Amino acid sequence: MTQNILIPLDGSRSGRRALEHACLMQQAAGATLHLLHIVEPPPATDHMGAQTGSTPVDYTPTKGHEDGEALLKATWSEVGDPAAEVHFHVEDNPPGRPEKTIVALARELDVDAIVMGSRGLSDMKGLVVGSVSHKVSHVAHCTVITLHVPDAEPDNGNAH
């Protein structure tokens, strides 16, 4: 029986679908959910910043963590059971390696399963270098459940 479940969320439809599925697993098994958001600093939009790959002048790691926690709490309030046990985790991302962050936290928390979406907000990058969910499924120590949201499914305004 699954006792600890990790759900990485990035604001995408497939991430939300993964949380919905994990909530069903939680209800069936009385599990504890661990929601994870990995902070990826946004690229600068000004000419000089875009050329150098820097972050916007007004970005700080604290702001990134606050925004990540706000995303987790907002998604949980829309989908989750207020009486259920849930923990929020916001982690920094080693550049281009979110799968390492996901797997490391899964080991640290000794989770029984990772439930995640198959297509996040960086779909084009995923096509080129391989999807995060695919990489996680190959190296995780636990069960990995990947949920796919077809392109034809309506957005309903839930993705950020």
UniProtKB/TrEMBL annotation:
Pfam families linked: Usp
Domain UspA: 1-146
Superkingdom in the source lineage: Bacteria
UniProt cross-references to PANTHER family, sorted A to Z: STRESS RESPONSE PROTEIN NHAX (PTHR46268), UNIVERSAL STRESS PROTEIN UP12 (PTHR46268:SF6)
Family label: Belongs to the universal stress protein A family.
Protein name: Nucleotide-binding universal stress UspA family protein
Biological source species: Kushneria indalinina DSM 14324
